[in-house]
Amino acid sequence: MSFPAVFPEPDEPLPQAGAEILRLAVPRPSFLRFRLVPAFRILAERTVPPLVVVAFALGLWEILCSGPGATLPPPSRIWADAHELITNPFFVYGPQDLGLGWRLLFSLQRVGIGYGLASLAGIAIGAVIGQSVWAMRGLDPIFQVLRTVPPLAWLPIALAAFRDSQPSAVFVIFITAIWPIIINTAVGIRNIPDDYRNVAQVLQLNPLEFFGKIMLPAAAPYIFTGLRIGIGLAWLAIVAAEMLTGGVGIGFFIWDAWNSSRLPDIVVALFYIGIVGFALDRMVAALSSLVTRGTARS
């Protein structure tokens, strides 16, 4: 026996053709809640801890150096004695009476020339050495020995060769910064995967195309590691070299302030040197992130 199919009656009638459909508006995300607040939270997480540490260090410094037997000036005395150096770094009162801003620019000019030459020469030499196992084995021990020579040890050789303080300071920067660039570039070239070289052979790339399209992008993380180390060494070398060669750079200012017993000026100069060195490192790191995007190793 078969039974007829029974369908339940709907509680409400189905919408007929042409009936109006109600569309609900999608709520727009709040800019304040989803953009501004997270950005402010990230900024606070990055800036508040260093500011707290700096404030604590300054307070401890003030307490320890405010006693009658203290040999170093406290922050309050540094602010009082070197107020103009801090608030007006670009004053000009004479050929040798310049603000720290101008002195830093003179030093940065020398660093730019020496470091730029070291970068070009270091990448080129490192690429050639990285292509040859025998060159790597023969020259790597020599480079490891030369890179340990202090920057000031090169200064007498430079003065004897150039007979002038300006090119001598540039040479000291060059010879100090070039070694990590050469070594890291050579290591990066040696670590290029064989698959990349096979692809270059299949595409029949000439040496120049292989260098620009395969070698440099693949070795970029290593190269920029050497460049970051080199910029730090270059900034250290110029301060040391200017103490002996004279001029209007920041290194000579520190040496002259020491001879004149101006300890607050020296502390301010050290602060400026640290800020500029940090900025130089961040600039190279930012360039590294931009260039090595997608090629950096995890």
List keywords for this structure.
flat, single chain, mainly alpha, 0% strand, 298 residues
Question: Would you kindly provide a written description of the structure presented here, covering whatever features stand out?
Answer:
The protein is mainly alpha-helical and 298 residues long. 72% of the residues lie in helices and 0% in strands. The chain is flat. The termini are far apart. 25% of the residues are buried. The mean pLDDT is 83.
Compact overview of the structure:
The protein is 72% helix and 0% strand. The protein is mainly alpha-helical.
What is the element layout, followed by pairings?
Elements: H1 31-64, H2 75-81, H3 83-87, H4 100-130, H5 133-146, H6 151-162, H7 165-190, H8 194-202, H9 207-245, H10 250-259, H11 263-291
Helix pairs in contact: 2-11, 4-7, 4-9, 6-7, 7-9, 9-10, 9-11, 10-11
Find the count of extended strands (DSSP E, 2+ residues): 0
Sketch the topology as an H/E string, one letter per element.
Answer: HHHHHHHHHHH
Number of helical elements: 11
Quote the average pLDDT: 83
Radius of gyration: 31 Å
Helix content: over 70%
Please mark out the parts with pLDDT under 50 across 5 or more consecutive residues, or reply none.
none
Portion in strands? under 5%
The chain-level structural class is: mainly alpha
Main β-sheet: number of strands, strand sense, barrel status? none
Distance between the termini: 73 Å
CA-based shape? flat
